[in-house]
Structures are given as C-alpha cells and as structure tokens.
Amino acid sequence: DSGVTQTPKHLITATGQRVTLRCSPRSGDLSVYWYQQSLDQGLQFLIHYYNGEERAKGNILERFSAQQFPDLHSELNLSSLELGDSALYFCASSVFGYLDTEAFFGQGTRLTVV
Amino acid sequence: GENVEQHPSTLSVQEGDSAVIKCTYSDSASNYFPWYKQELGKRPQLIIDIRSNVGEKKDQRIAVTLNKTAKHFSLHITETQPEDSAVYFCAASWASGSRLTFGEGTQLTVNP
Predict the structure, then answer these.
(1) Subunit contact A43:B97, Cβ cutoff 8 A
(2) From chain B, which residues contact A within 8 Å (Cβ)?
(3) What is the per-residue DSSP string for A70-99?
C-alpha cells in the first residue's frame, strides 16, 4: 500500500458524460500529480498541484480540469467524454513541489467510456 | 520539454539470465532518474532511482548506471526470476521540475 488513495477503482460511463476522479495523497505530501495511461501506452503527465496551486500542465485536454483542495486531496474532472478517454488514471504524490525523490502512485481509476 | 526514449519495448530472457533496459533523455538539466515496475493492472512502484551526482547504484539484483555526458541511463537486472516479469518504466526529472517524464516502457518476460 503506497498510502495514496484513489476512488473509484472502476468507472463505466457513456460518451458525453462527466466524471470526477478523486485522489488523497500520502499523509504529509503536498504535491499531487495526475497521469493517464491508455492501453499498452506509457504514462502521460496531465497536471501537477502543489499545496493547492497548479504548478505544471502537460498534455491535458481542455475538457479535463483538476483542483487540489485545502485538505490536499485532488479531483480530476473529465467532461464530454469520448471513447478515446478510456484509460487508467493514476495520481501520485510527493513531499515537495519538485521531483527529486520518490513519487508514490495510487492504484489508479480505470475509466471505461462506452 | 524533456523527452525520454526507452529500448527495447519488449525483452524476453531465460530465468537466471541478465536483463538490460536502456533510456536516453534530452534535457541536460535532468538530475533525477527513477525506474518503476508495473505489473498488469497495478500501480507503478519505484524499484530504484539515481541522482546525477552518482554514476551507479545497486540494490541486490538490480543496478542502475548513469552517463551524464551521453545522457543515458540503464537498468540492469541479474539472476532474473519469473516474478521479475512486468513492464519497466524509466523516467527523468530535474531539481526544480514539476513532473516526471516517462519512457514508453519495456515489457520484460522471464521464462522459467
């Protein structure tokens, strides 16, 4: 157990819908990172939040948004879903706002868009 | 931005043999290089990492080497076992960097 909690584990929804994925970082970690992993693909960086503020954006679609709350949990919102959005979505957390130490991954949310 | 290339994409070895996976990175400012192991449908887990002030690091059967001049780093697994079968990802980041950039992954299969 990494200490990073993601909910839900599985999500099946229809095209055009909106979903929210939730991530609780390890106790004491201030940073949350979101990654997308499509079938047989690598880990694509989406966005990074540190202590409530957005720090960096990767290849995140405009239909996607995220935020980090005062209690440091984070939510990734995916709207106007398309079949191609089906993927594993991971969040990871680390202590600092930069990455020169281990990032701990949650178990992921498997999103299936039908 | 940073780009990380990883080779090979698939690697099949016999139990007991060694396995080597290589990565190159583009940003000379990168100074942190972790390796993650991901079993099917599970989360990536750190197996070893190295920082740019170190050329080599070893942890039991796993070692990582770094060549800053050539901007490449490698994962070495000796005496492979079937439970080493998984996808391995290399990654790179820099001190003030806000993301880990991952390679495309290597599917390692260790045949009994």
Answers:
(1) no
(2) 31-32, 34, 36, 41-46, 49, 51, 89, 93-105
(3) TTS-EEEEE-S--GGG-EEEEEEEESSSS-
